[in-house]
Design goal:
With 309 residues, this protein is α/β, with parallel strands linked by helices. It has helices spanning 3-8, 33-45, 51-54, 60-65, 100-111, 131-144, 164-179, 197-200, 206-219, 237-249, 276-289; strands at residues 68-73, 77-78, 88-89, 115-120, 149-153, 185-187, 225-231, 254-259, 293-296. The protein is 38% helix and 13% strand. The strands form 2 sheets. It has a 7-stranded parallel beta sheet with strand order 1-4-5-6-7-8-9. A two-stranded parallel sheet has the order 2-3. It starts with a helix and ends in a 13-residue tail after the last strand. Its main location: cytoplasm. It comes from Synechococcus elongatus PCC 11801. This is Lipoyl synthase.
Length: 309
């Protein structure tokens, strides 16, 4: 799936794992059913998608109540097959819907959202890998809701050309299209440590993702950059710290750390449940390394409390 979604799939479905296998700090209910139902109705009527729903994020009721949501662009089908993600996968996704940006903007206005995150599945089949749809959607929201802040969580924008030089330039060009719309934050998730990238993020690479974050900082230094990791796939604390250091070396400003939950038996199993105390310790380490904003906890996801910086 898209590296961004990978991010994305911090939003996994804990309900598919037997409650007896989950530690007590992961057994909380969704709550805020009225808010969930209201948003579900609006997005269903407009035939749009949110990662909140596609990934069944455990925090979606809380986020909806805060006036935030994360919309999924360029359709619900990803051209990659990441082993942790429950978003639909396939090599023949539908064509881009030209009306999607306007419908999303209408939903933002109807719901009165103050902060929106735009993400997307990986679309390696598209010449611009979906960058144009990010830009068009941001413009549509800005026109209808000029006070709404927009964060983007993108794929790596890599692919489509076997020549490395041309592929690198294409990545720059696609990223520039998105950054030209001045999102309030640029997010791209590493998802896991370098040793586990091939196993977890099929079709993505650690160095390409770091390069994208570095490019974003170079092209638009005033826009904060952000990344996230899901823990519990077999990484060690030392590897996590090395990854955080690598993110800081490319100027990454913000960080999310959350617990991986297995969406189904067909996905990677959980190797370890990190405790709330361990998440607090890792959060403190991240702050010491210089991250300006850190969200670290078992139920934290890529867009968790994104509106609070």
């Amino acid at each position: 799936m898209s590296q961004c979604l990978q991010h994305w799939t911090f939003a996994v479905n804990a309900s598919r794992q037997p409650a007896s296998t989950l530690p007590p700090w992961l057994r909380s209910g969704l709550g805020r059913a009225s808010e969930v139902s209201r948003v579900q109705q609006v997005i269903k009527q407009r035939q749009i998608h949110t990662i909140c729903e596609e990934g069944r994020c455990p925090n979606r009721g809380e986020c909806y109540a805060r006036g935030t949501a994360t919309f999924l662009l360029v359709g619900p089908t990803c051209t990659r097959s990441c082993a942790f993600c429950q978003v639909d996968k396939g090599h023949a996704p539908q064509p881009i819907d030209p009306a999607e940006p306007s419908r999303i903007a209408e939903a933002v206005e109807t719901l009165g959202l103050q902060y929106v995150v735009l993400t997307a599945v990986a679309r390696d089949d598209l010449p611009d890998q979906g960058a144009g749809q990010f830009a068009t959607t941001m413009r549509a929201i800005a026109q209808r809701c000029p006070q709404t802040q927009i964060e983007v969580l993108t794929p790596d924008f890599w692919g489509g050309d076997p020549d490395r030089d041309r592929a690198e330039q294409a990545q720059v060009d696609r990223l520039a299209v998105v950054l030209a719309e001045q999102p309030v934050c640029f997010n791209h998730n590493l998802e896991t440590v370098e040793r586990l990238q091939g196993q977890v993020r099929r079709g993505a690479r650690f160095d390409r993702s770091l390069r994208l974050l570095s490019l974003a900082k170079h092209l638009a230094p005033a826009i904060p950059t952000k990344s996230g990791l899901m823990l519990g796939l077999g990484e060690t604390q030392a590897e996590i710290i090395e990854t955080l250091q690598a993110l800081r070396q490319v100027g990454c400003d913000r960080l999310t750390l959350g617990q991986y939950l297995q969406p189904s038996l067909a996905h990677l199993p959980v190797q370890r449940y990190w405790t709330p105390a361990e998440f607090e310790e890792l959060g403190a380490i991240a702050r010491e390394l210089g991250f300006q904003m850190v969200r670290s906890g078992p139920l934290v996801r890529s867009s968790y409390h994104a509106d609070s910086g």
